[in-house]
Write a structure and sequence with these properties.
By secondary structure, the chain is α+β, with helices and mostly antiparallel strands. Helices cover about 40% and strands about 25% of the residues. It binds flavin-adenine dinucleotide (FAD).
């Protein structure tokens, strides 16, 4: 009974600050007794699993700066700025995202079901640290802006993920996705779960690379994640492909490097060895299909 009461507990207070600084000051004041809440889908799911809400929730819903999405052209550079509280359903429908950041749309489409995506935010997906959109954002070279002790700071998503683990007061403000120049790119996102749809991920991989007509690879980013592990870039595997001409020999080396480099967290349904092999197979087979397509065109 005591356990049921704890699960049913509602937070003692919900604060609705109007600015990021105000939210951050509340978090600093209440510290471990408070949590940010955006869409609330993850926090609600945890509550249903028996993890009670903290005494205070700090809702980010009234902070206008976190709600917008805009395309910005700044000299030669152009990027999409996405507020942390933009809903996954808005990203799924966005024509900008569909046209120039397709793998993010692929990733969003595969998170939960429409009812969850209508509430869930991109910031919540990232700050949950294992969100399935993170590999796509890493592959796309996302930068993010966040608020902490040192004010508003901007860096790569990789750096943010490290910092946010260390400092619980961090508030994610926005995500910046660079627009790739109109050249040839190989880009893909693949999520594997135990069912075909509406499934938690076991493995998620995403890749973005520029490829010349001679199959010369440059500006490659490979990311892998899934399950409860924190997604990450596979930089040693990227280094094998950067500057190389795609071939079966190179891909054999990349396979070995992913097996060596990727260090997934085993789950209830899959061992680390299984997850590693699945990630290596997914990544290498996509490049191999690209090569096969070239051969078919020659015949
Ligand atoms: C049925 C169901 C299925 C799901 N399936 C998937 C799935 O397939 N893939 C997947 O990736 N996820 C899945 N989720 C998990 C979750 O719903 C999503 O990750 C969602 O994007 C979280 O966003 P949210 O806005 O609801 O986060 P919230 O629940 O509001 O917050 C999540 C965490 O992030 C923190 N937070 C939120 N915003 C910020 C911010 N701006 N700055 C700092 N901290 C912040 C919160 O304090 C909390 O710790 C699922 C959830 C449910 C209920």
């Amino acid at each position: 009974m005591a356990e049921q009461e704890e699960i049913a507990a509602v937070p003692a207070a919900v604060y609705r600050p109007a600015s990021i600084r105000e939210a951050w000051e509340l978090k600093r004041k209440f510290n471990e007794n408070a949590a940010m809440i955006a869409g609330g889908t993850l926090l609600q799911m945890k509550r249903e699993q028996g993890i009670a809400f903290p005494p205070c929730l700090i809702s980010l819903e009234n902070i206008q700066a976190l709600q917008a999405m805009e395309f910005i052209e700044d000299g030669a550079a152009a990027y999409l700025k996405i507020g942390a509280c933009v809903r996954l359903s808005a990203l799924r429908k966005s024509l900008f995202v569909k046209k120039d950041w397709r793998i993010l749309q692929e990733a969003v489409k595969q998170v939960a079901a429409p009812a969850v995506r209508n509430r869930a935010t991109i910031g919540g997906n990232i700050c949950y640290m294992s969100g399935d959109t993170i590999p796509a954002l890493l592959a796309l070279g996302a930068k993010v802006a966040w608020f902490s002790e040192r004010g508003l700071k901007m860096d790569t998503l990789e750096v943010f993920l490290q910092q946010a683990r260390l400092h619980s007061n961090t508030i994610l403000a926005s995500i910046y996705l660079p627009k790739q120049p109109p050249e040839n790119w190989i880009s893909f996102y693949q999520k594997v779960g135990r069912r075909a749809a509406f499934t938690p991920s076991l493995v998620v991989v995403s890749v973005c690379a520029k490829v010349s007509n001679e199959n010369h690879i440059s500006r490659i980013r490979i990311a892998a994640g899934g399950g409860a592990g924190q997604p990450k870039r596979l930089t040693a595997s990227e280094a094998l492909l950067e500057g190389a001409v795609l071939s079966e020999e190179i891909l054999a080396g990349v396979y070995e490097k992913i097996m060596e480099e990727y260090d997934p967290l085993p789950g209830n349904f899959a061992s680390a060895a299984y997850l590693k092999t699945a990630a290596a197979n997914l990544i290498v087979s996509r490049f191999a299909r690209f090569l096969d397509r070239e051969d078919e065109a020659d015949e």
